[in-house]
């Protein structure tokens, strides 16, 4: 997928100018956290679950060599073919090869952020295949020629009227009413059902790979992923190698965290586990199944100080709670993964040079870390990335020298207190009459939008000292 | 498999890991203990299961015996389609049902185009999620779970389990004894989507309706209690 992360500020400005989009995102930012909070409260001891899963994920990543080898062995014994893709391009070419070996024309695809990352759809379509996304949200944006705005609800940026117009244009079904959301869902069901029944290859993602038995867990509400996994004669599961967990119980523990954090549901309608191709006694199911395990720099993350990020379960809670995401929307981030998790992952999976704007798209408010079901210290990782940006000279020189000057001063408390004392005193004198400044040197970013309040005559430390002396 | 890619990926993974022995890894894993399960809506597993089936937007009936179950299925078919036909997998438990008692004409096999209602027999029910758990096989074609408009599932009351850990305790010995089935399906409601304006709609791609028949001796008061708990929670939620 083409990357536009460096245009984050311009993209965000454009998004903020769209009043309809802003209103829609405001509603989401209000309701999504309420739903999540209610689900978390209904669980009971959610924090204990969160900490348990965190320990299991840490243990799995610390010993990924052991668990990955075990998964590969069990999955192979179950009759799967296991492929390793080092890069996005590798994954795409492995999948195209499999499709071509079977002479496939029609592909039914379940929701998979991994294949968004690799740009699989475009690749397969260039290879002459008819690829249809079957998750309703993904289907809508595929028809509109757009990219996901949210990792869980990819088409939540679109209104029902926009989707109605899109369906009327794209589906050759004659005159019809499409005013309600129910009618829109019904039409997509009708169109996609035919594709499901004709597709020769199904492609899905995975929420977890289970090392002890070689099963892959798939969590959905629509059931589209299960149709992709069961109806076509070939199934390809595209996922990443960090998804491996030791036991079935660990996968279902993640299930407990995922839906509550993502949509505020206690669980989704379908939680399925797939082990491989059709067995002798089976009535149906694919005849051939493949796992394609993508690395794409995840082993670099595993070896780095950013390993915690591999615990991410792609629930989108950090997006739903991020004030920057709510204001700017997912498209502003310019690649596959938006919001706080995307601002950490994008530089690590692409490069800091191509996405240095993203770690700065953060107010350090900490809400993302509070709600992250995997307890990933997102603000800390974003700060580390900003530090790296500065160390590698990727930030503007004025910014870098300014920070360096501030660091030099902050390390000399005596001088710092004297200088800030003088500055505060000056600001107090000049601003005494009106009580605020409408313009200030070096602070136009603030004063262009709002007045800067004139400070009290003394700094906090000066007042603290005075009061301490008075108390004595 | 491209073995070069595998070798390089595995080498990088090994380079980033601690190289612990299998024994130590398994010991560490065992020491991590068990995840806490969700609080149940009632301490009685059967009531909790029924409440969660209702919360999952399922419809629910209790049948004291197989004859009663068949009659209830017959009524369900008549109410929805004025029909007495359905399709069921080649499941011995379903084949042995006294179909004549309810005037039901089952066809055993895979769901075909135009058939609206499929019947399955779950292996377990999980109270924590209100899910019916089914294993794939000749007795349970996956099309029958995923493609009908209405999916009717029978669950034996004796097979109800409190949580997902107890589900694995039941599933794991089956995998060891009989091999690993292709699919393990935990179905907890009709197919749904919230992808348009976050508004929930049922019947996205799979069944529009999910009807659970709990088979066995269940005190009628338990069903009343489950309905009351569900209605109470719903009323509480709408007040909020």
Automatic annotation (TrEMBL), chain A:
PROSITE patterns documented for this protein: 4FE4S_FER_1, 4FE4S_FER_2
InterPro entries: 4Fe4S_Fe-S-bd, 4Fe4S_Fe_S_CS, FTHF_cligase-like_sf, Helical_ferredxn, LUD_dom, LutB/LldF, NagB/RpiA_transferase-like
Superkingdom: Bacteria
Pfam families: Fer4_8 (PF13183), LUD_dom (PF02589)
Annotated SUPFAM superfamilies: alpha-helical ferredoxin, NagB/RpiA/CoA transferase-like
Keyword terms, alphabetized: 4Fe-4S, Electron transport, Iron, Iron-sulfur, Metal-binding, Repeat, Transport
Gene Ontology terms for molecular function: 4 iron, 4 sulfur cluster binding; metal ion binding
Ribosomal protein recorded as keyword: no
Gene3D superfamilies according to UniProt: Alpha-helical ferredoxin (1.10.1060.10), NagB/RpiA/CoA transferase-like (3.40.50.10420)
Keyword Iron listed: yes
4Fe-4S ferredoxin-type domain: residues covered: 303-332, 353-382
GO biological process: lactate metabolic process
The protein, known as: Lactate utilization protein
Organism: Pseudohalioglobus sediminis
Automatic annotation (TrEMBL), chain B:
Stored Pfam families: LUD_dom
InterPro entries with a match to the protein in the record: FTHF_cligase-like_sf, LUD_dom, NagB/RpiA_transferase-like
Record-annotated LUD domain positions: 116-215
Gene3D superfamilies: NagB/RpiA/CoA transferase-like (3.40.50.10420)
SUPFAM superfamilies, A to Z: NagB/RpiA/CoA transferase-like (SSF100950)
Name of the protein described by the UniProt record: LUD domain-containing protein
Organism for this UniProt entry: Pseudohalioglobus sediminis
């Amino acid at each position: 997928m083409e990357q536009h992360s460096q245009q984050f500020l311009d993209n965000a400005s454009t998004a903020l100018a769209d009043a309809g989009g802003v209103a829609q995102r405001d509603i989401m930012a209000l309701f999504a956290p309420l739903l999540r909070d209610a689900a978390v409260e209904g669980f009971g001891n959610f924090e204990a679950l969160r900490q348990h899963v965190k320990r299991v994920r840490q243990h799995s990543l610390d010993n990924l060599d052991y668990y990955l080898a075990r998964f590969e062995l069990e999955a192979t014994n179950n009759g799967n073919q296991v492929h390793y893709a080092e890069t996005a391009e590798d994954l795409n070419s492995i999948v195209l090869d499999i499709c071509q070996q079977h002479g496939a024309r029609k592909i039914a695809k379940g929701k998979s952020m991994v294949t968004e990352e690799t740009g699989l759809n475009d690749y397969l379509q260039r290879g002459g295949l008819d690829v249809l996304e079957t998750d309703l949200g993904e289907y809508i944006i595929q028809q509109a020629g757009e990219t996901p705005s949210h990792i869980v609800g990819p088409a939540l940026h679109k209104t029902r009227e926009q989707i109605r117009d899109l369906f009327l244009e794209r589906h050759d079904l004659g005159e019809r009413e499409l005013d309600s959301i129910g009618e829109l869902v019904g039409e997509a069901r009708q169109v996609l059902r035919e594709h499901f029944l004709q597709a020769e290859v199904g492609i899905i993602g995975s929420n977890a790979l289970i090392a002890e038995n070689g099963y892959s867990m798939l969590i959905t509400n629509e059931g589209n992923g299960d149709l992709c996994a069961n109806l076509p004669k070939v199934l390809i599961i595209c996922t990443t190698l960090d998804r491996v967990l030791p036991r079935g119980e660990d996968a279902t523990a993640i299930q407990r965290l995922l839906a509550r954090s993502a949509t505020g549901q206690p669980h989704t309608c379908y939680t399925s586990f797939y082990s491989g191709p059709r067995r002798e006694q089976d009535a149906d199911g694919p005849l051939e199944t493949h796992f394609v395990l993508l690395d794409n720099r995840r082993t670099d993350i595993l070896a780095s100080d950013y390993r915690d990020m591999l615990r991410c379960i792609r629930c989108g809670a950090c997006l739903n709670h991020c004030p920057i995401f709510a204001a700017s929307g997912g498209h502003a981030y310019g690649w596959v993964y938006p919001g706080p998790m995307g601002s950490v992952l994008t530089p690590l999976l692409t490069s800091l040079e191509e996405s240095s704007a993203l770690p700065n798209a953060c107010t350090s408010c900490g809400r993302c870390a509070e709600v992250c079901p995997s307890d990933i210290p997102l603000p800390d990782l974003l700060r580390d990335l900003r530090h790296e940006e500065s160390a590698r000279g990727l930030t503007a020189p004025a910014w870098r020298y300014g920070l360096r000057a501030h660091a030099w001063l902050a390390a000399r408390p005596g001088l710092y207190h004297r200088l800030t004392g003088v500055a505060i005193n000056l600001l107090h004198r000049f601003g005494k009459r009106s009580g605020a400044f409408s313009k200030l040197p070096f602070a136009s970013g603030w004063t262009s939008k709002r007045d800067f309040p004139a400070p009290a005559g003394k700094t906090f430390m000066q007042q603290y000292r005075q009061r301490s002396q008075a108390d004595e | 498999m491209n073995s070069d890619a595998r070798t390089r990926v595995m080498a990088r993974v090994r380079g980033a890991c601690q190289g612990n022995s299998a024994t130590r890894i398994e010991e560490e894993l065992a020491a991590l203990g068990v995840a806490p399960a969700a609080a149940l809506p009632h301490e009685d597993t059967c009531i909790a299961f029924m409440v969660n089936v209702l919360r999952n937007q399922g419809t629910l009936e209790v049948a004291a015996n197989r004859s009663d179950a068949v009659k209830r299925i017959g009524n369900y078919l008549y109410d929805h389609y004025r029909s007495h036909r359905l399709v069921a997998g080649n499941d011995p438990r379903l084949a042995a049902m006294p179909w004549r008692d309810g005037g039901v004409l089952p066809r055993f096999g895979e769901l075909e185009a135009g058939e609206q209602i499929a019947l399955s027999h779950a292996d377990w029910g999980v109270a924590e999620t209100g899910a019916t758990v089914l294993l794939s096989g000749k007795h349970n074609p996956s099309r029958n779970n995923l493609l009908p408009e209405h999916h009717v599932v029978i669950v034996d009351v004796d097979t109800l389990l409190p949580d997902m850990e107890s589900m694995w305790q039941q599933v794991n010995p089956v995998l060891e004894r009989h091999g690993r089935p292709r699919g393990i399906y935990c179905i907890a409601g009709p197919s749904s989507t919230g992808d348009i304006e976050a508004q929930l709609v049922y019947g996205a791609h799979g069944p529009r309706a999910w009807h659970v028949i709990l088979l066995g001796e269940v005190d009628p008061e338990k069903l009343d209690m489950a309905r009351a708990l569900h209605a109470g929670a719903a009323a509480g939620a709408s007040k909020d």
